[in-house]
Amino acid sequence: MHIKTYHADSMQEALKQVRSDLGSEAIIVSTKTGDMRKRRRGAGTNGEVEVVAAIDYDLDASEGKTKEFSRLVKREMSQINNPEADGRLFERKGRAGEVEENASQYGAEPAGQKETESLRSELKELKWLTQFLVRKTEPLNQHHLPEQLFDLSCRMLKQEVREELIVRMLGELQQEFSPESLGDSEQIRKSLLSKMKRELPLSGPINLTAGSPKIAAFVGPTGVGKTTTVAKLAAQYALSEKKKVGLLSIDNYRIAAIEQLKVYATIMNLPFKAVSSKEDLGKALGDFADKDLILIDTAGRSQQNHIGEVKQFLNQAYPIETYLVMSITCKDNNLTAISHQFEELPVDRLIFTKLDESCTYGTLFNQLTQIEKPLAYFTTGQKVPEDIEVATQERIVSLLLDETEVHYC
């Protein structure tokens, strides 16, 4: 068996490539669109559609047996690739052995050693492909999910919500509803939404207090968009809410970042100071005591370096609310490492940036259940001040269930 992957801008173009390359007898093993684009960028490939096709050209000598075997392979692949056929992908796991047993009926009398080895190689590839296709839903397979729950699990898996979280929530639903009630898709969805919302701690926007300035510092690794986020919030509070806002920067490592924030401050006619020491920061905070809101942009730090220095800067007599800014485009494991490193700081709230650059949003849910800090905002682009949103449970849940998009990525 020969297995090959094709990438194209449309499904029609991909299928045309398959027919041209492998012929009309080719079997379509799987297709993927949209959510694969980010992964392909990282792999250096192009195209909007991915199609995996196969052809069992090695068995042409035994025409009658080959056609029967081809039909068997095609049936197994179509059932594995379309779990909705019976709603239970978990039943497919053991089918590779059945395929091998049935195949022996069609290839038990090979013409010679070469044909026998070819058949063994083909069966080995088929076993591997079967195991690969079911691996992603392995924890879910053990729970015999009914159709409605299986559909919801697929939506969340597509968004890269962690499997253990899906298993736990759907397992609770199975216990709460009778088998008959599980057919009520609207009730199931409402109950799942309620469970997901309980896992989403939110803080709301920056809350100002009359008579005293609110001081908010923004920390996080390099390149996540801290400076742009500070500018967006400054514009919202100064221009839209008519509040007195002051801007400070303690980023002494990137001159461009200081200049960028200074330009924003000039455009918005806001006071701005760049400070280089803890003492300078304390003095600047005193100078801005008449402001409603003071926003502090900190130096971008690798999660492995210099966090102690930022901690010293923020150790002031004034109360400072600290926001950890992270990009949703980072891998889930990397975000976990970042959050652990920044535990040295007194982080109060979270901000997730670059939702416009991601095609999956499960990382939001994964990290919120793990970090246990409330989410305040997420950003959806580079425009100041438009591309920032106060995080809401409804918006996040709609992203996790693949019901809305930030943009077409």
Number of domains: 3
Structural class: alpha/beta
Tell me how many strands there are.
Answer: 11
Biggest sheet statistics: 8 strands, mixed
What best-fitting shape do the alpha-carbon axes yield?
elongated
Mean pLDDT: 76
What is the CATH superfamily classification of the largest domain? P-loop containing nucleotide triphosphate hydrolases
The CATH class name of the largest domain reads Alpha Beta
Would you identify the regions where 5 or more consecutive residues have pLDDT less than 50?
35-45, 58-66, 83-104, 106-110
Q: List the helices and strands in order.
A: EHEHEHHHHHHHEHEHEHEHEHEHEEH
If helices are DSSP runs of H or I spanning 4 or more residues, what is the number of helices? Answer: 16
Summed up, what is this model?
By secondary structure, the chain is of the alpha/beta class. The protein contains 16 helices and eleven strands. Strand 8, helix 14 and strand 9 (347-353) form a beta-alpha-beta unit.
